[in-house]
């Protein structure tokens, strides 16, 4: 656990150990670490420290220095207590500054110390926070006064400070906080008076000083002494020797307070510094006095106003942030619309460019196809021409006699059929079919049976066209 904090400078030392400033390695927050050594303590005192530290965990009040955690270092026989760091210093520094400047402490500041310390002591003595002030319900106030009912003090959980002094009242952002809770009670035994109370006990109550049974009102005596010092800039009891100081504290006679302060404040301070603890007012009595109630109500209203101002400030900042976000969103939306228009225009341009390229590619493909077709037909014509020429060369030149064709046809027919004389008309038809199949260009009239063939000639051009068509059909089929 101690590895989570980085040790910084030492800000105080005492009989219990050292007070050191530390920084958290997690969030860089500043805290205070009290290093208490227990080498000279017995087991009972050590267990008492642990039990008191557990009680300190429950002390959650804005006027109490917050307790974070504790760490037991067994190897060093030491206990580290991590608590809230108050950057404003302590009340002793305030008194020293006013004394140096020879100025009186403002009464408003003294009232603030009184009320806030009473709220802290109320939480310690009664184990709960004081109720909010209600000045307008007179019936409830009268019934409470008649009954004179005060919260019960639980002896098992009560925390009596016993060491209230200006050095143990700290300041953080204008709020006074009571610190070092229970340390005096934990570390003090019958034989540890000198170790616990180093120096002169200016603020000790008579019963604690005499080692008599005491109650929580011993803290009221100490608070009265602190308030007295704020008014006169010096403790109420001063002496050259320890015995003389004890004698003055037992008598409880104090010099008069400065007349510059109100009668109510001076009366409360005198009531707090009462020798008999049975006559001394309790924390409940003081916090329910009329002057304290009015002051508490004023403080509560001021706190409400500060809270409202803070909320207003936060709302204004939030509103400004929302306006900035709205402007940013509007700008972003306009940019998005502009981008959308650009994308639409780009898309249209791409589509148009694509269509143009497609048309050009189609034209180019068409030209290539036509070129291929032209080249193909050129090759075909050349091949056809070549084939036709080859076939024509293989045939006899000049026109053939039609008689030879007729003779060849009739002789083939006579060989296949012995009854040719009776079927002369069929022979003539066969001749016509042969000539038609060979694609010869003959006259359209019907060839009579007795037509002489000697006067009709076969034309070479017809044969050329026929062969050419045959070759073209072959290429198309392939």
TrEMBL record:
Residues 389-406 have a biased composition (Basic and acidic residues). GO terms for molecular function: ATP binding; protein serine/threonine kinase activity. Residues 5-295 form the Protein kinase domain. ATP binds at residue 34. GO terms for biological process: chromosome segregation; filamentous growth. The keyword Kinase applies. Keywords: ATP-binding, Coiled coil, Kinase, Nucleotide-binding, Serine/threonine-protein kinase, Transferase. Residues 389-434 are annotated as: Disordered. One of its GO terms (cellular component) is cytoplasm. Its EC number is 2.7.11.1. Residues 409-433 have a biased composition (Low complexity). Residues 301-349 form a coiled coil. SMART domains: S_TKc. Belongs to the protein kinase superfamily. NEK Ser/Thr protein kinase family. NIMA subfamily. This is non-specific serine/threonine protein kinase.
